[in-house]
């Protein structure tokens, strides 16, 4: 099993933008071959929020197929283009990616 975490952290004033991104990603994830489960976790304090989008896959190859689909790649290309041209605005959302492979610790 392969697990991917995408963590989005920002000010509560930008929470609606994080939620919109998560909803879009959630809708694009359903019924994907090799997907085992999807969770979204929330951690918040007085003025910051952190949402963690966690997907579990049958294999790393299933995840790679999903993340390299054409519409996803094009979306990131467009975001990078806007960022380079200074068109993306000043919204500060920190994104952290983590990926894990399930390990049977009794066999290590």
UniProtKB/TrEMBL annotation:
Coiled coil: none annotated. InterPro entries: ABM_dom, Dimeric_a/b-barrel. It comes from the Bacteria. Residues 2-91 form the ABM domain. It holds the Pfam family ABM. This is ABM domain-containing protein.
């Amino acid at each position: 099993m392969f697990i991917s975490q995408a963590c989005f952290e920002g000010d509560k004033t930008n929470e609606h933008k994080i939620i919109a991104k998560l909803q879009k990603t959630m809708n694009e994830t359903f019924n994907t071959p090799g997907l085992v489960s999807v969770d979204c976790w929330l951690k918040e304090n007085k003025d910051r929020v952190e949402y963690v989008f966690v997907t579990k896959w049958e294999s790393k190859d299933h995840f790679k197929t999903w993340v390299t689909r054409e519409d996803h790649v094009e979306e990131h290309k467009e975001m990078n283009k806007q960022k380079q041209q200074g068109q993306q605005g000043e919204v500060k959302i920190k994104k952290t990616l983590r990926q894990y492979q399930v390990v049977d610790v009794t066999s290590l």
